[in-house]
């Protein structure tokens, strides 16, 4: 960017973030520095760690460009890149907790994050409880003890899309001296302003919308002030780093993040509206639909919706008919992850300890940036296969 204009919109910001062509012979994109060793001109400079960069693992112009772009997009002090979204979850949690602490996690937390909590926290002497993401502030308050140091949010929740009352939970947490971490992967910095909502630790799986092309695994932990310093130090001590090509691909993906998000959002709303009119669909879980139970929270706190949502099919529909529908889809791949250019579908695998789901088959859809009419035509043919399989 030629002039660092602080008032530009996020849409413009991502196009130019961290670019500095005049320092790189006019080359538009940030160069990829492959390195472990970084040489010093003499032993005295080495002895005193003089110079901006010391060692590839700790930071290079490439890693710095990607981390700075994400930190500035969130208008927060620092973003530490991690090798996956899951490792951003673990860094965001371990970076701020110590043995003897207690933490609270929503029952609808992303499944692999939940497994991390269940398996790793007991080994380091951190106790935890899962809470109902839609619980009242009073009930949540009763779960906080003097040892509680962190309340974790994920809104909407993974697969089931429960919306949380974020401002009320943040107020409660800060009144009780707890930090708040939030997995903001669904909304991204574009659709939920985590800094304005006083989130202390923002976690985003850059694997999804930031990199955006289903070919990179990366995460970011974004924070301010002393918390940011603590997380950066924890990452450094643990040798957490990301390969330069992945930083490069993520920055390249970020340039088109805004337009991809808009297309993905539009497609999801069109597909979800079509699905909710199908008699086999007994429930929709898309926060931007007025029928969604947490729609009022989404409307109050968010400025857009992404391409990920789920819907529930009548429990009387056998798997054989659902398989006939899904297996024959031409445009929806069957698999994990989301946030790329292409549409996906899978069946939600859910583990909950204190909340229950109604009976039915929950399918999760991610709409990419294809033409929405093509996506709906593909699903229409799928629904016809399902109906045929039931006759
Ligand atoms: C909400 C959410 N957070 C974090 C992750 C983890 O990201 P990654 O797959 O890069 O580890 C995912 C992955 O699906 C996710 O859906």
Describe this structure in words.
The chain has 391 residues and is of the alpha/beta class. It folds into 2 domains: 10-255, Aspartate Aminotransferase, domain 2 (3-Layer(aba) Sandwich), CATH 3.40.640.10; 257-390, Aspartate Aminotransferase, domain 1, CATH 3.90.1150.10. The chain is built from 14 helices and 12 strands. The strands form 2 sheets. The chain has a 7-stranded mixed β-sheet, with helices on both faces. Strands 8-9-12-11-10 form a 5-stranded mixed β-sheet, with helices on one face. Strand 4, helix 7 (166-175) and strand 5 (179-183) form a beta-alpha-beta unit. Helix 3 packs parallel to helix 10 and helix 13 packs antiparallel against helix 14 (372-390). The longest helix is centred in the last third of the chain and has 20 residues, at 257-276. Bound molecules: pyridoxal-5'-phosphate. Pyridoxal-5'-phosphate binds at residues 84-86, 89, 110, 158, 183, 185, 205, 207, 217, 219, 337.
In order across it, which strands form the biggest sheet? 1-7-6-5-4-2-3
CATH hierarchy: architecture of the largest domain: 3-Layer(aba) Sandwich
Number of E strands: 12
CATH classification, class level of the largest domain: Alpha Beta
Strand % is 15-25%
CATH evolutionary superfamily of the largest domain: Type I PLP-dependent aspartate aminotransferase-like (Major domain)
Low-confidence segments: none
Number of helices: 14
Number of discrete domains? 2
Can you tell me the CATH topology of the largest domain? Answer: Aspartate Aminotransferase, domain 2
Bound molecules: pyridoxal-5'-phosphate
Shape by Cα distribution: globular
Secondary-structure content class: alpha/beta
